Amino acid sequence: MRTHTTRALAVATASLLTLGIAACGGTSKGDNSGAAGPASTATADPNAALKEGLKIAFLPKQLNNPYSDVLAGGGEVAVGELKGEYKLVGPNDAAASSQVSYINTLIQQQQDVIGIAANDPNAVCPSLQQARQAGIKIVSFDSDASRDCRDVFINQATTQGIGESLATMANELAGGEGEIAILSATPNATNQNAWIKVVEEELKKPEYSKLKLVKTVYGNDEDQKSFQEAQGLLRSYPNLKVIVSPTTVGIAAAARYVSSSSYKGKVAITGLGLPNQMREYVKDGTVSKFALWVPSDIGYLAAYAGAALASGRITGAEGETFTAGKLGEYTIAANGEIVLGPPTEFTAQNIDQFDF
Ligand code: RAM
């Protein structure tokens, strides 16, 4: 495509101008000369062929979460298309530093790309920096690591967009007034904390003046703890109208609790959920509306971004473009962010069209 080529050339030229003298070659594995830092010192070659045989590892927040399985499944498909070597590893809990030992092992194994959903933006940084110094490309997805310890971040949708959608759904379900509460994942999760911040900002707007966020609690993305936290919220706040849970684990646990309690039909549950986990609660009337994106597309896009980085096609700089197989072309935005697309809202009308 003409526009594509023109754009790619413009980006390449811009990168050359920006990087100037610092651009003295790419960093390869085993080269300790400076992969770390917010922007790579390599120059993007938009015509570089994608390498085959790349070792691309996925490290989600935790393994025992259906969301991680769906997401990594998309990554596996993409790595297959790229003729690479796929690996999935991870802890069973989403605690701040639970991923560190996995990163260290992936460095030992000389992976080419580590895709990570960071359980804490900073706890993973020293190990990720070591990985970058060993020439490994870091693609954060779902939950970002600090900007200076990864190359790009695959964001499922814009942080602002997700936060706004959570506030809008809560407002609609509360009928424009009353008490709402948030049931989040872990207290250190980059993604949930960023979305909650947007919700809090949204609630300051005049259209939300009658909506009151009474409490935010954390179920740590553990089913039982999330269930108990939902129960606790309803006991502590008898006038609660809506529980907003921006985590697939939390929303499913809260819906399960409410569906078999006297709160069913009185307290609304909304947030971010997997259609397959939420279907029964939509069908039984506990949940009328929630949102999400296609998690497998995040994994798929992360693998292609990793391959583009490891092949020198992109460096993570703003304005660079690459093609992600069936998903088409993506442009890197500010701060190395690559946005998948807008979230989808699910209701009784459309939920049966989705199978993930
Ligand atoms: C949970 C995890 C994940 C988040 C989804 C919406 O599965 O916390 O990080 O993106 O919910």
From TrEMBL:
UniProt keyword annotation of Transferase present: no
Superkingdom of origin organism: Bacteria
InterPro entries: Bact_Solute-Bind_Prot2, Peripla_BP_I, RhaS, SBP_2_dom
Entry keyword annotation includes Signal: yes
MF term (GO), any: carbohydrate binding
An annotated GO cellular component: outer membrane-bounded periplasmic space
GO BP, one annotated term: rhamnose transmembrane transport
Residues making up the signal peptide according to the UniProt record: 1-23
All residue ranges annotated as the Periplasmic binding protein domain in the record: 56-313
Subcellular location: Cell envelope
Keywords on record: Signal
Protein name: Rhamnose transport system substrate-binding protein
